[in-house]
Every structure is written in C-alpha cells, then in structure tokens.
Amino acid sequence: MRYHLIHALEDIPDHIHPKPDEAFMVPSFEFAEALIARGADSACIAVTPHLPSNETCSDYVWNSPNGPLIPRTAFQFDQPVLVVLPTYNERPNIEAVVQSIGSYLAADILIVDDNSPDGTGQIADELSRRHSHIHVLHRSRKEGLGSAYVAGFHWALARHYQLVIEMDCDFSHAPWDLPRLVYQGAAADLVIGSRYIPGGDTENWDMRRRLVSKLGNAYVRLFLGSAIRDWTGGFRCFRRELLAKMDLASIRAKGYVFQVEMAWRAIRLKARVREIPIRFRDRAYGHSKLGWSTIYEAVREVPQMSWRRFASK
C-alpha cells in the first residue's frame, strides 16, 4: 500500500483517480471530506492527526487488495453514541456487521429484530451475551422499517446517548464511514450520508434500482424542496435534542418513506442538516426489501406532508 500524504488542502487535485494499491493519509476529517468530494473512496483514507514523514502508516492496517483500511484502534468520541440496526432475516450479515462497526467506531449497538424467522434474533442475543456494548430489542412481528427505527429511538432517548445513528444491516452503508458521521454530528443536528452530492455514488445497482431511487428523490424534491439532495438515504446521525423534539409517536410512515418524513420534520424544526457523500453498496447477502408497497406509500405520503405544512399555517 502506497500512501499519498496530504499536508494542505491546496495539495488536493480537482479530480482524483487513485490506483488500487494507493491510499491517502490526512491529518483530519476535514481533509478527508475534501478528498471524498473530489472522487476519493472513503475506504482508502487514513485519518491520523500526526502525519509521518514517510509514506507508511502504523495507525491503519490493510488486510486485502480490494478491502478497506482498518484503524488499529476504533475512533472514540466524547459523546456517547448508539448505532441502531433494524433486522429482519439478516442471519448472514448480523455478526459480521456488528464486528465491522466495532473496528471503526467505539459505540453501543442496538439490534431491533422483528421476530426474524431465520434466527437473526437468537444470534443477536448471543452477541449481546458476549459483548456488553451490544443490546437487543425484540419485537413480536414485522412492522416496517420506520416503526423499528422509532422503537430504537425511544430506547435511546430513555438512556444517556447523545448521538444516534441509523444504518442498514447488510453492508450497504460502509462501517468505515461511521466516524465521519459522528464527527460531523458535532456541528449538525442531522447528518445524512448522501448518494447525490459530489463524491456520493451507488455501486452494483441495476438500471431499475438507480431509476427508482433518482425518480423517488426527484418526486420528493417536487413537493418538499431541494434543501436535501438525498431525501431517502438511510445512513444518518441524529442529535438527541432533535429526536426529542420530533414527536416520534406521531410518525406516520412505516416503510422507506420514513426517511423522508424524518428529514422533513428536521427541516421544519429548523434543524442544522448536513449531507456528506457516501458510496452506497448493494447488499452482498439476502434480498432488498424495497417493493411496490414502499413505492405506493411514498407516492401517497409525500404530497400529504407538503399539504400538512400549508394546513398548519
């Protein structure tokens, strides 16, 4: 692995096309964000406050040619962080995801399992018995993504967590991007991992999936505006104070449009919202839970959000 040392923002070229065996070493997350916005893969960026004088980095390891850099010590922040992982039939992923999260971020993890018939809940219980930072919330039946997150948010608010992260349990959201979300959470009430700002992208999607996602975001912007580029993205970090203001009990959306409703409520509460670019990778195992019922819910609910805004004036 050959590292490029970045000592000043002026050293970053306008467009970056690193080779497979190249990575970047930077002194801060601000430098990392500038690199990513210009095309660098966040998996190949080592954030280390004290840059060495040569092209070696003892703070990270690189286990495989196509794999991400892994810090020798997980990033730890001053404020307590909880990662909420909703699961339904995620048996092939759950243990690997939990282990990977712990490699990059020192945080508690709450697994919200909707009585998965494949035994995901039992694996989660075993992980919780082995690791004190892993917790499990069992629900009796599948009630939708939005409902699972709301249950997790209530659980977090009843405890001491100041930052609450939501992410998928299928490696679609890169665990190595978690420290970036938390770092930005110091200056924002809601941080969104965005596919649709410079540096953001999707990988391994077919044309139908790309079309549905882009048209969906365009549809939301038609009714709710362009304050957010990726309304439907589900990789986010919320500050506790924002969640406490949101009246979670009144959340209407159950499927993926839940993400739109949460972002829209944040905008209406005049929250500080920031988007950072991510590369969304299609799941390696299992099947996407995006179906026609989710699309129908979005078509129905998004205009109603806009109309409720005018009705409340």
Keywords for this entry:
Spore Coat Polysaccharide Biosynthesis Protein SpsA, Chain A, 9 helices, alpha/beta, about 325 residues, 7-stranded mixed beta sheet, 14 strands
Radius of gyration: 19 Å
Helix content: 25-40%
Report the CATH superfamily of the largest domain: Spore Coat Polysaccharide Biosynthesis Protein SpsA, Chain A
Strand order of the largest sheet: 8-7-6-9-12-10-13
Query: What count of helical segments does DSSP give?
Result: 9
- Give the end-to-end Cα distance, rounded to a whole number of Å: 58 Å
**What is the N-to-C succession of helices and strands?**
EEHEEEEHEHEHEHEEHEHHEEH
Tell me the domain tally.
Answer: 2
